[in-house]
Amino acid sequence: MQKVLIFLSLMVLLANCQEKPLHQITVKRGNFFYTDGIASTQAHNTVSFLAYKGYFDKGETIQLEKSEASLHLKMVSKNPNDTTADLSLKLLGKALTEEVFSSQKLLVELCDEQMQVKRTLQTDNLKIKSLPKLE
Asked: 69-87: per-residue pLDDT in tens?
């Protein structure tokens, strides 16, 4: 059943993105899509970062797009209105911004299974104070 839902989600995703051609990278059991505005090296660096953090282990679908003002990391969520993971997703977005995207503005967008955006998380307003080093 899960494979059928993933397949249907991918088909809807592809149908919704006819204006922006998608490129696909298959990772473990998940899928990563990116549009023409994203460089191949940037897409592969994003995949490496997310895979290292444990994404794609359970068949996740993630898409990266570029608009005029920002990058959009779209993540399929079973419950996109659940706010319990917001802080960890904002921290993930902040780390991606600093380590992969050269401080470009990034929006983390939580989507339903049809890849329709339900909520958007800002990552540029997150202030992280470094902890003192222990000696």
From this structure: 999 999 999 888 888 888 9
Domain count, the chain: 1
Based on the number of CB atoms within 10 Å of its own CB, is 109 exposed (0-12), middle (13-18) or buried (19 or more)? buried
- Cβ distance 38 to 64 under 8 Å? yes
Confirm whether 133 is domain-assigned. no
| Claim: this prediction has a pTM higher than 0.90 | no
Phi, psi (rounded to 5 degrees) for 99: -95, -25
Residue 116 exposure: Cα atoms within 13 Å on the Cβ side: 5
Its domain, for residue 104, covers 2-122
For position 44, which CATH number holds? 3.30.300
70 inside domain:
yes
